[in-house]
Amino acid sequence: MASIFHLGLSKDFSLILDDADDYNVIIQVGENQNMKEFRAHSVILRARSSYFKGALSSNWVTKKDNMIIFSKPNLTPTIFDMILRYIYTGELDLTKQSGENILGLLVASDELLLEELFEHVQDYLIKKQNIWVRQNFVLVLNTVFRLVSCKNLQDYCFESICEDPLPFITSKSFLSLDKDSLFNLLESDNLQIEEVKVWDYLIKWGIEQTSAGLGSSSNSDRTNWDNDNYDSLKQILNQFIPLIRFVGISHKDLFNKVYPYKAIIPSHIFKEIEEFYYNSISPSLPIRIRKIKSNIINLELVNPIIENWIVKKNSKNPRTGNDLLYRFKPIYRSIRDGISDYSFRNKCNGRVASLVLVKVENTSKIFGGYSSIGFSSLGYNFNNVHSLKFYDSSDNFIFSFEDSEDTQNMKISRVVNKSRAILDCYSGFNFGQGSLVMDNEKLFVNYNACQNYENNLNIEAATYTIKEIETFIEDR
């Protein structure tokens, strides 16, 4: 087996780079006051980079006294120094470099066809500079969006933004986002934000881009705009408006925030909006998928299994066409709000479709329930322990999973006595007077003498200690 002596080789080539007197290439890097000359050897540059192999033998270079003069004004001396040291020694230390320099190194290594270096720097940005990347999404995306080789970093940026887009779209830098990056973002079905906020900040972005100066203080009042102002904004936003999921915007927000900009919305899209709200005709675009971020259950169990239960589909069959994709917003987490009937009822208040997930002690089972009318606080009087009232729903169900990853052995029990779907009493929640009940830190399952729900959970009446509980409401 051959012996490898890379360490000594790297050291010797470092000496050639720093102290050589037989160089035949002068590379002028940077511009004006930030220009620096680097000395190098054409044979090494050609051997290490196919870019230099072609460039040094082309008309791009000039020769003076048998010396090759090559110019790279688009690179900075700091970045090229790292590149040249990598070419000669195979070494690279990014620990003391700024995020801007590392990003510049990524672009330069792509241009110079240094594939190994490019892959390393891209990976470094994602894994070691992820905080800086998140703080500078616009700079990163505007820099790398057109680099075909940079898909990993692009995907990382878009996926990270989609998970928590509000800090990004509300930042000042958002208004300078490149239009291609914005299109890619709005095209995503996984943007985890209220659609009306997407619309609000698209309008702000569009105003910032107009040549008519609509973003200036003198033109900030929309009531002073004329037809030319609206036409200018319409031209800017023409390719983006079809990406807005208008059916995810409430009637109130549609009236207050969308209708005032009716002049910039294509007539066929506006007609589609009205047909959905007034005639229930499905739109061409579904609403975005709002994922549940849960500490209790794997997201795959919510989408599509629980969601299909809600729309009363077979949980084994995927959605098709323009089926409504339910969106959930967390309103109660025991790790933040505590475990008690009072804290649950205080947070989970009102007649709004809701989902509860419960993790219990001493078993891997996950329990939960869905109520189209909410769980509690529907009029219960805390001062009167005898204040009991049933509410009806034909859509309610309770369920169990064997563990947080179970997608095969889950059980569902639907309400059979819709007039007693939810009992509003002193407990946190009470499905059907005993089918699934939260009583402070206790969870009672299948204490259902009244048989208001199916008995499909395949367990006898049992009492568990609640370890963690989360509640979500549908946010359409």
From TrEMBL:
A GO CC term assigned to this protein in UniProt? cytoplasm
InterPro entries annotated for this entry?
BACK, BTB/POZ_dom, BTB_POZ_domain_cont_9, SKP1/BTB/POZ_sf, TLDc_dom
Question: TLDc domain: from which residue to which, for each copy?
Answer: 295-476
Recorded superkingdom: Eukaryota
BTB domain: residues covered: 23-96
What Pfam family does this protein match (any one)?
BACK
Name of the protein in question: Serine-enriched protein
